[in-house]
Amino acid sequence: MEKKVFQVPNIGCGGCVSAIENELNGLAGVAYVKGEVDSKMVTVEYNEPANWDKIVAALTEIEYPPA
Question: 15 in helix, strand or coil?
């Protein structure tokens, strides 16, 4: 299992976090997603078929690209 912790500068509220969590939870292979409004940090754990490139692409598509 891969684990990444990264910043998403566009996080401004709980709705932003929900959008990110919902988007990433919809990707096959994503096992865990948790975002934090105050720190603008997101933790994601995943296995194949998910990978970092797919996660970045999904977040960029909804306008929450990782820093």
Answer: helix
- pLDDT tens-digit profile, the chain (67 residues): 999 999 999 999 999 999 999 999 999 999 999 999 999 999 999 999 999 999 999 999 999 999 9
Q: pTM of the predicted model, to two decimals?
A: 0.95
User: What are the domain boundaries of the chain?
Assistant: 2-61
- Among 3.30.1330.60, 3.30.70.100, 2.40.50.140, 2.60.120.40, name the CATH number for the domain at 2-61: 3.30.70.100
DSSP-assigned letters across all residues of 28-39: TTEEEEEEETTT
